[in-house]
Each structure stands twice: as C-alpha cells, then as structure tokens.
Amino acid sequence: MGVSMAQPETTTPVREQWSGQYGFILAAIGSAVGLGNIWRFPGVAYENGGGAFLLPYVIALLTAGIPILLLDYSLGHRFRGAAPTVFRRLGRRFEPLGWFQVAISFVIATYYTVIVVWAIRYVGFSVDLAWGDDPGSFLVNDFLRASGPGFELDFVGGIFWPMLVLWVAVLVVMALGVRSGLELLNKICIPLLVVTFAAMVVRALFLPGAIAGLNAFFTPDWDALTDANVWIAAYGHIFFSLSIAFGIMVTYSSYMARRSNVAPTGFVVGFANSSFEVLAGIGVFATLGFMAAQQSIAIDDLEGLTGVGLSFSTFPQIVSMMPGGPLFGVLFFLSLSLAGITSLISILQVVSAAFQEKFGLSRVQASVYVGGLCAVISLFLYSSTSGLSILDTVDKFTTEVGVVASAIATCIVVTVGARKLPELRSHLNTVSTAHIGRWWSVLIGAVVPLALLGMLASSLSDLLAEPHEGYPATFVAIAGWGVLVLMILAAVVYTLVPWQRPVDDFTPVALPAKQEVRR
Amino acid sequence: MTLPAIIFMVLAIAIIWGGLAVAIVFLARHPLPPEEAPDTGGSRPVGGAAGAA
C-alpha cells in the first residue's frame, strides 16, 4: 500500500486508561445510549408489531448486538489502539477499513452536534413554550428557517453560535483526555440522564390517556412476526442503537486495563442500552397516549412518531397541552441533550485517537487541528438554512450504507481475511470470568454478516429506486453518494500516509495453550 | 391496560431489565482474580493514543 516499511524512532507515550471497570461501563453506556434510544426505538417497536416486536428485538440483541459489541471490545482490547491501528495490526492491507470507520465517525460528528444544539435550544424554548400553537411550523420556518434541499450560505445565528460554544466545550473535553475528560463527563451526565429521564417517565405515566398509550405500545401483533421486514427492522435497530462497527467501542475498549473483565462488561452495556430503550418506549407512548386523548383520536392516527418529528414537533405540541408542561419539556429536552453529548464525545474520540496514533499528535493538537476541522465543516454545513435536508441525506447514507458496509467488512476481515476469530475468542476467554462459546464465532462468521447483507441490500435497493425523500438527484448525488465516495477516498489516502509512531512492532499478550483456550 | 399488553410489558421488563440485573450480578460475583503483577497498560503499548499532551 505504499506505506513506509521502516518505523520511525519515536518515543511512544504511555497509553491512557479508564480509572477502572465502573468508569469504562459508564462511558460505554454513555456512548450507546443516544438520541436513537429516545426518538427511534419507541416508533420502530410500535410500527413493527408492538409487544410482538419484543421477540425479534431480543433475538437481534443476543445474536447480533452483543456479539458485535464483544467483537469490537476484543479487537480494541487485544490490539490496543484506535480503529486504523487495530486493523493495521490485523494485517497491513486492512488499515483502510479502520480509516473508513474514522471517516464515518467524522461525518456523523459533524451533524450529531447540530441535533444536540437543537435539543439544548429546546430546553430554553420549553420554559415559555416558545413554539406557540404550531410547533411543526416553528421548527421548520422560525427556528431552522429551512430552505429545502441545496447548499446555502445563509447561516442561522440561533444555531451557529450555540454550535460554536458546544464545539469549543466538547473539544476541551477531548483535550482533557480519557480519564479527566471523557470519563468525568460521563460520570456527571449519565446519572443526571437517568434521573431526569426517569422523572419524565413517571410524570408521563400519570397523564390522562397514558394507559391507552401503553396498550398501543405493548399489545402484540403476531402477524408482524411473519413479515421479514419486521426482523430486518429489529436487527437494524439493535445495530444502530449500540454504537457498533464504526470504531467507537474499538477505541473505548483499547483504554481498558490489560486485566479487565471484558466479556461480562459487554453484556452489562448491551442490556443497559436496551433497558433504557424500554424505559423510553414506556415514557414516549404514555405521552403519546395523552396527546391522542386530548385530541380524541386513536394513537394510530397520530403522526410524527419517530425521529426529528417526534422530538421537535410532536413532543412540543404535547408539552403545550399538559399541566406543568414547561417542566416536562425541560426534562425531556435535557435528557435528549445529555444522551446526545455523551454519544458525541465518543464519536469524536474515534477521530482524535486515530490521528494521535498515526500522526504522533498530542491530545491538544488532535483536538485543535482535527476537531477544529470537524467543527468548521459542521458549522458551515449544518448551521445554514439548508442544514436540515443535508443532515437528513448524509445521515441516511452514512448509517444505512456506510456503517452497515463497515460492519460486514469487519466480520469478513476477522473471519476470512485475517482469520483472527479463534484468537479473539481466546482473548475474551482469557481476560474474562465469563466463557464465550463457539456460538460467538458462528454468529460473527455467518449469521451477523448475512443479516447485515440483507439490510444493506434492502437499503441500497430503496436508495437506488428513487432519490431519498424525493430530493433533487444532483443534491442526493452530492450529499448522499458523494459523501460515501469521500469517505472511501479518505480511507485510502490516510492509509498511504506513513505512520509517525511505531505501529507494527506490537505483540499482543500471550494466550494460554490451545487445549486450555478451547475448553 | 389490556391483558395482552400487561403480559408483554411484564415480559419486556423481565427479559431486558432482568438481563441487565443478571449481567450486573454476574460481574459483581465473578471479579477477576487478584493481580499477580503490576499492570503496565500493555505488553508493548506502541501507537497508543497520546497521553503526552
């Protein structure tokens, strides 16, 4: 690949570490629990069989979510680095996959920030119900001043300046490092998130109509289980929910001490993420039940049950209707902000760590140069009046094509390319007090990639059939396909740049003899 | 609430939150054995994310 064979003679800094198991678990939960848990899961579950969705959801969690989570943990913990370092150590030809994951994180970080800013602004809007009688119109016309698909240079001050402040704040956290920055932030934000969100859910449960909402959410539709799309939705949701396959968990687990109980920790993080989702489903549908009761309609007739529409249009409408609405709104949008910030930090760490390792940068240098570039692009694209349509398109292509392709490639690389699955399983079993059986290898080597291939084919088929959201084809070609091409180019280019720190003279910890490993 | 909804709400909570409880209890009851040698952060911690800032 044209990479310099001679490793530079540089002093390798001591690797940062979490303060312990508790610090890592909180940070990993903070990364996994994000905007999607609150605004995506309830709607996806409702649209795909309600209570019956539980079955494919749990099966997807156990057969895809936790196995890939453990794969990411084993890669990061064994090969001790950010994604490019880890894939390079699997084999030189696999380094581009690591940079592709970094590129995905870079792109996601640019637009994730603006969503967090919206949530923070809505905390303030909740106090005086600033959205008035028509929250949908307020969001699009007054707050975002959305101009539709295009690339405008008309910046919205109410988004630009808060975004700038948020960028400075998160880059300071990045510069403070793993323990004093990321871990401390999570230790503050995660307990606060649990308390605020639990308070919101309790309030929602006592609203008139809440029971009807819970009935709608949990009543099983058994016919849904025979629909292949419901199963694809379950695997898709679990996959996007856990922050897997784009470098986050690889990077985070590389900061765990050599002696860490890796596998049981993975189960705790996986189930904690799903537990929060179930709580979100209860809270959101109890609230939607209240809204339906106020309008004397069925929950089936409500619109805007997922995503941006749910959070920034439907929920403000509900807040305006209920007694004590401002407090409820503050709790909801504060929860959204906290969940978003802890996830944003983890996404940025993927980028920061990769550049520190390859280019020999310090934390501060990586924050200023790489984080600064990310901030400039983010401000330029998403604080403008065309930000909403760009965000929508970039997110669609990055997550549904980029991340899924990355996950498939990871499974293929570790199974067939580098043939490291047995070694990774041995590693998990050596460092953990829980035993990971051969089932894990079967899932990672066959079941997961096949399920993901089905998802990718389904997404590509939809995206190729017609332009996303009916946007102009040129716009989709640039903001959708163009961004994917840029990520692939970035992966190739950064691979070709010589390493400024030693990377190949690495020896993973010794594993026990085969007969012991394969117990 | 209707009976099917109650059953599935209880099942969801039992399986997902129960799974979390089991995972936490397992982690607490099966800690790593006492350390034999000081942890140096890696046998060959090359290319590590900088701690030199």
Keywords:
heterodimer, A: 519 residues, mainly alpha, Amino acid/polyamine transporter I, 20 helices, globular, disordered N terminus, disordered C terminus, B: 53 residues, 1 helix
Describe this structure in words.
The complex is a heterodimer of chains A (519) and B (53). Chain A has 519 residues and is mainly α. Chain A has one domain: Amino acid/polyamine transporter I (Up-down Bundle), CATH 1.20.1740. Helix content of chain A is 74%, strand content 0%. Chain A has helices at 21-32, 35-39, 41-47, 54-79, 83-90, 95-128, 135-143, 157-205, 210-218, 228-241, 248-254, 262-295, 307-321, 325-359, 363-382, 387-417, 421-431, 438-465, 473-496, 514-517. Chain A is globular. The relative contact order of chain A is 0.20. Mean pLDDT of chain B is 75; it is low at 41-53. Chain B is mainly α and 53 residues long. Chain B has a domain at 1-31. Chain B contains 1 helix and no strands. The relative contact order of chain B is 0.07. Classes of the chains: A mainly alpha (519), B mainly alpha (53). At the A-B interface, α8, α9, α12, α14 and α15 of A face α1 of B.
Layout of helices and strands, plus pairs?
The complex is a heterodimer of chains A (519) and B (53).
Chain A: H1 21-32, H2 35-39, H3 41-47, H4 54-79, H5 83-90, H6 95-128, H7 135-143, H8 157-205, H9 210-218, H10 228-241, H11 248-254, H12 262-295, H13 307-321, H14 325-359, H15 363-382, H16 387-417, H17 421-431, H18 438-465, H19 473-496, H20 514-517
Chain B: H1 3-29
Number of strands of chain A: 0
H/E element order of chain A: HHHHHHHHHHHHHHHHHHHH
- Tell me the span between the first and last alpha carbons of chain A: 39 Å
What structural class do you assign from the helix and strand content of chain B? mainly alpha
User: How confident is the prediction overall: mean pLDDT of chain B?
Assistant: 75
Which class of secondary structure composition applies to the elements of chain A?
A: mainly alpha
Number of helices of chain B: 1
Top CATH class of chain A: Mainly Alpha
> How far is the N terminus from the C terminus of chain B?
57 Å
Fraction in beta strands of chain B: under 5%
Shape of chain A: globular
Largest sheet of chain A: none
CATH topology of chain A: Amino acid/polyamine transporter I
User: Helical proportion of chain B?
Assistant: 40-55%
Oligomeric form = heterodimer
